[in-house]
Design brief:
Layout lengths: L1 E4 L7 H15 L6 E4 L6 H9 L2 E4 L9 E4 L6 H9 L3 E4 L3 H15 L3 E5 L5 H9 L5 E3 L2 H5 L4 E8 L5 H12 L2 E6 L5 H14 L4 E5 L5 H10 L6 E4 L7 H4 L4 E6 L5 H23 L3 H4 L1
Helix pairs in contact: 4-5, 8-9
Length: 295
């Protein structure tokens, strides 16, 4: 059995930056507790590792008075940031630079009088952070159908959640062009998102089954599965290597592996090791002679 990794997978720049920042905060804590405001990234196993190393997740009410607070990669509303400053807390901003860019573009559109439309999941923390910059005054659409259901507008300014599919974003923009006299489009999709989706689209047509490693609640990981299934119906999301069963690998000659932007290298390596272990066991089983024929 051959194991094939996607050319682009795993930690994106923004996630790696946030995790590295949290560990730098721990090194310089000098006895202070280090916490992250909400889960730093969307990966339960990496959050467990951070916690075991002394970096816990907290909400605003449970942040210690003398602690160091690391802002999550998805960003927070400016009101939350100002509240932390007012308490005199030491703050390290782990917001992804792409998310910061989205926040700035949303504010520019809002101040220029455009109706802001955000293509994405209205409950995602990245979207909630952006909304805080524009007084929660925006239309949120997750699909073409939701965009088509919007009323007519004069001037629309549109931005995307950084992890949305470029294909979906373009379809939503096309729908908005039918709704407004002017549509100003901001390109806010993360490069890593595009690269990972391109890589898995190429890989999915070359393998018998495909595993995407990522958190159940990770938008970009779930999107990778959706893209992979266009060519590989046997693509599925896993959080850990232990979820891989020997039975589903039986008969597979090529197995693909990809991973969401919040998936660290150590988790990818564990999945590869598990695949090798199960693959070797199946090969030994296949080569074992039928004892009934040798007696």
């Amino acid at each position: 059995m051959e194991i094939v990794l996607a050319e682009s997978l795993g930690f994106c720049m923004g996630v790696k930056r946030a995790v590295d920042m949290a560990y730098r905060a721990l090194e310089k804590a000098d006895g202070r507790e280090v916490v992250t405001l909400g889960p730093l990234i969307h990966n339960a196993q990496e959050i467990e590792r951070l916690t075991s190393d002394g970096i816990r997740t907290a909400d605003e009410a449970s942040i210690p008075a003398d602690g160091t607070v690391v802002i999550r990669a998805h960003g927070v509303p400016p009101q939350a940031y100002e509240a932390l400053k007012a308490r005199g807390l030491k703050i390290m901003d782990g917001t992804c630079p792409y998310v910061h860019y989205s926040q700035r573009k949303a504010l520019e559109l809002y101040e220029q009088g455009y109706t802001v439309v955000i293509a994405g999941d209205r409950n995602h923390p990245e979207i909630l952070g952006i909304l805080g910059h524009i007084n929660n005054d925006a239309q949120i659409v997750k699909s073409v159908e939701e965009a088509e259901a919007l009323p007519a507008f004069d001037r629309v300014g549109v931005i995307a959640q950084t992890t949305i599919s470029p294909k979906k974003y373009q379809a939503i923009i096309a729908a908005l062009n039918e709704k407004a006299r002017e549509v100003k489009v901001c390109e806010t999709i993360c490069d890593a998102t595009e690269e990972n989706q391109k890589a898995i689209r190429e890989l999915s047509g070359e393998v018998d089954l495909l595993f995407v490693i990522g958190g159940r609640h990770s938008a970009n990981s779930n999107k990778l599965v959706e893209v992979a299934r266009e060519k590989c119906p046997r693509a599925r999301l896993i959080e850990t290597a232990e979820e891989i069963a020997a039975e589903e690998l039986r008969g597979a000659k090529r197995v693909g592996v990809s991973a969401g932007a919040s998936t660290p290298d150590w988790m990818i390596q564990r999945v590869v090791e598990r695949l090798r272990e199960v693959g070797d066991a199946l090969e030994r089983q296949f080569k074992r002679p039928d004892r009934s024929e040798t007696l």
